[in-house]
Design goal:
Four copies of one chain form a homotetramer. The first copy, chain A, is an alpha+beta fold. Chain A is built from nine helices and 15 strands. β10 (212-217) of chain A pairs antiparallel with β10 of chain B.
């Protein structure tokens, strides 16, 4: 299913080359000032334009169909849609017979018995994440004390990200990247033991973003190589603040009031111009595919804000689920 | 909340030093042969005993309260409980005033306003994961084609795990570890785009297990350093099999029929005998804590089967949610 | 929240005088032929026009934003919107200070702290039910063996419904009605014990429709006056068919293969032209309100198909939740 | 599935003749004083004993397995079990070949492919409702301002209930009854538009109780015969109080601060000593069944408190879902 959240609920819909993509956001408290412009900074971060992003240009102007009255949320569900404009469905004709390695072409066909919309990957397209960014902007609005700071730490293993991307483009290839999301202003006490732990909900939302291969908190995978005496964060006051942050701000699934630190491994884009071997359903033999469409060389450039939005909606759901936080709105 | 799953639903309850811990499993199909002994192999893997595990001994005999008739599931919810036997609540008295660094002592207190059961970490105890193992055993039963294989790849950064653990024990310390879960026999088409992706549900369940710091699939964090031409898995037949498995068996959130590969970073146990600085609520000053109770030096030894169980319940929920798989039972 | 269903999930959004109302339908199987015209018969039944219905005219042309490709469902969520056209927001200005007796004006204000959209009752308007009818049309499509037959049995207590409505209009008043929904072709085995019983889900959906005061199955409230020997339905064959249908087709929460019979009490419209006493927030005293807008004298005329749709989505959710039925699609 | 609720979640398990029946209650706030004795008054109301109730005697002593520490809730899930004592499984042997008319024997067999526990109706037994009463007692505890008052208005159509029951017993028959639940102290603003309306959740929970045939609010089915000018409740102050209560305390799905009034039609018990015709699977022909076990002549006597509990858990879920109410705990 395409919805997430118990008390701040997000439902995504739309296809890359259909009339529109969008999102319904349910569980937003009433009285929050919200205008399409509030979404613009995040939408701009997701928009193509920089070197390494697709030449496809979308205006991405959010159209509010519901849930807003006189510039404020009403408490009823928000539906926000983004009309698709710059579509070129013929770009994708080849993938119908030759599924792209690493892409959802093949699994979507199997899952939906061939009835999935194949144009531009249909509902599996990164285009659908624009609705996630819209929901993330709303999520941030209802948690005014939280400050999100997201950074691409490296691409292709290098901290010199522009060079790594330029080199990949020169090779008609793509490149993966490492993204870190930091959230300051976290209250202590967010999250719950076991299945509604901060990490469970945040990772759930992050792994829903196409192209994510790994998620870690605080010391993350490095913790597997550490001793307890190194990894444990000494508590230094009665509020639970710590002098180190190896846990990334969460103990026992519950925020401890320190900075939340999450890192996300984003894979290289699977659609590349370089020739790749794949099965050809037309011939029944192996074939060679060189994608001609408009693609991102480094999806993390645009995905960073999507990941931040995914993190925000997970936190918003926890925020709305604990009356101590929700009632402060 | 303490439940997980839409169509195969698991609800955990219990405290470390209360009368019992247990689980309710709802959504299990009728007619599955199930006896307490079916759980024994997995329970044995979770049981303490090896070097590096706690001296606390629990028989862990599952008591079936419901859902079974004449040795088969009935379609009604299964409730399985495990009586707590070998409890020593006084072990934990110190943590009431001096919360353990890295542990949930502090966050549990904040979350529940001091009403949480502090004895042996109460509901935050790893003891509660015995119910997860029971649920995992049921999950595996309803997916007979799947074969789980879980391995501790390293501890403290070393593949010589016994030595790493022995060294940590010698230092009155604990050590983290890296666990890999491999699932063979995966059908293609399990999972859904976006929020019910295989990775979303599996990571959600894995991060609910205490002590998990990171989760990755296939190439995982290494993908952040790779090129598309390296990371993409060439498709080699009409069933979607691939000649490499950098995606770990999932594309677009949907299983592609190849082996599922998940790695989990497990932190070192936070409770260590070595002295640690922490805030002392009794004095209002920093104090020194050296845990005296019975603890694991390497929680991954016993957590490996818990992680496997968490993975299994996530897959079972997806399995039960797709009528093509569910109807084959 | 504004969503319903576990495996066939419906999310309603929109306000009476906003840009559009609509629905997202998630969990629809792929490959179902579906065109806007398929919804037209049900939309026509909901449309105003007959004596006793509002003079407000809406074209109610469904606009499919997602989930359809080449005339078939894709397995991705369907978003269907209906643009609002014939809006006259000034009609409702009076209700801002004088809440209508029996209407949601007052409770909506309290619930949403005055931020609710008051124009035409906003999200509380019957206008929002057009999305329910759209979802109901999809629900029926995925259960092709079911035949729905809905009848208004009486209005104002009389089987001569046109006369009862005409009399109410002559008195500048409104009138309630009794609606019966009959579903033939029901398979045996739909529904589950306790909380997912057929009656629980169907009543849940029915009571979400504005203006419903009661729901009963089979003999319904008459069963409270009966003996077991009268009310029990004799079983006459090995398929579970019965020679009477006092249970309305459900035993123990599970369909028994006989006709499903549900009756719904629909209240008289609360908005009437006749003068009514109510509290006037402007003066702080009691005042007199005579509604001038465009209203239905008997909401059951248009609500009948909405109730049928609500029943259909509840059954579709159960249908999609049992693999034996879902896999037959 | 056997769970109910989004933020106050109840999961029922157990069979009539298994080791125990019980309930897990998740979402209970921490710090609520709770002892087994707090459940005793409601359990006593459900217990057999009066004329018209089964001779089966169960002590029904709640055993708390989790979620309580030092007499208060901890915020972790409560598991409460009731051991089954006075079981006589041979009473039910006949029903295996001859399903009782009006009972779940036949539908349970179909639903679960014959794997359901048939002893004493297994999970379909009214015995399972003891867990609902336990959950209801907790629900009431977290809404201290609410006062529940439940009355059997009539049995067999007569307000002289003892006589009606005595007459049914004399005829080896059973009799239905009408139950009214009244809740005083309701805050205004509980519930939400559409699918989480007060009526939707309350009816959902009520119809999960075996034997319920109808649910109505306020004027209920009488509203179908009324005019708007009669049925509308005049608002008389700025808090939304009304001078009549035809709506039963709910407008637009949201409580209006007046008394909540719900009536429930409870069918006559289907198990009667009187001979009934039913299909005999052993002979493949129609047969005659005269139940010999221990049964209730009027299930409403014991079900009244179960219905009250169901109403309470639905309200508690709404209460916990609105931060304005939940944060007052």
């Amino acid at each position: 299913m395409n919805s997430f959240g118990r008390n701040f609920r997000v439902e995504l819909f739309g296809e890359s080359h259909g009339p529109a993509v969008g999102v319904v956001i349910d569980g937003c408290p009433p009285g929050i000032r919200l205008a399409p412009e509030d979404m613009e900074p995040d939408l701009a971060r997701r928009r193509a334009g920089a070197t390494g992003t697709t030449p496809r240009r979308e205006v991405d102007r959010p159209e509010f169909l519901s849930g807003i009255h006189e510039g404020r949320t009403t408490g009823a569900p928000l539906c926000v849609i983004f009309r698709n404009g710059d579509t070129k469905p013929t770009d994708y004709a080849a993938f119908a017979s030759m599924p792209r390695p690493g892409h959802a072409d093949m699994t979507a066909r199997i899952k939906f018995g061939g009835f999935n919309d194949p144009r531009g990957s249909g509902h599996f397209s990164g285009r659908v994440t624009v609705g996630l960014v819209a929901a993330g902007a709303v999520a941030k609005k209802i948690m005014p004390g939280l400050r999100f700071d997201t950074e691409i730490l490296s691409a292709g293993g290098s901290a010199d990200i522009p060079s790594a991307i330029a080199a990949a483009i020169a090779d008609a290839d793509s490149v993966g990247a490492l993204v870190e999301i930091r959230v300051d202003g976290m209250p202590a006490g967010l999250g719950e033991p076991f299945f509604d732990s901060v990490e469970s909900l945040v990772s759930h939302a992050l792994f829903s973003v196409p192209g994510v291969r790994g998620v870690e908190f605080g010391d993350g995978f490095r913790a597997a190589s550490m001793r307890g005496s190194e990894h444990n964060d000494p508590i230094i006051d009665s509020d639970g603040h710590t002098s180190a942050n190896g846990s990334g701000g969460v103990n026992g699934g519950i925020s401890n009031g320190n900075r939340l630190v999450v890192r996300v491994a984003v894979k290289p884009a699977s659609t590349i111009a370089r020739a790749q071997a794949t099965f050809d359903f037309a011939s029944g033999l192996m074939g060679t595919l060189a994608a001609e469409g408009r693609h991102d060389a480094c999806i993390a450039l645009r995905a960073a804000v999507v990941l931040e939005a995914a993190c925000a909606i997970a936190l918003a759901d926890l925020y709305r689920s604990d009356p101590r936080f929700a009632s402060k709105e």
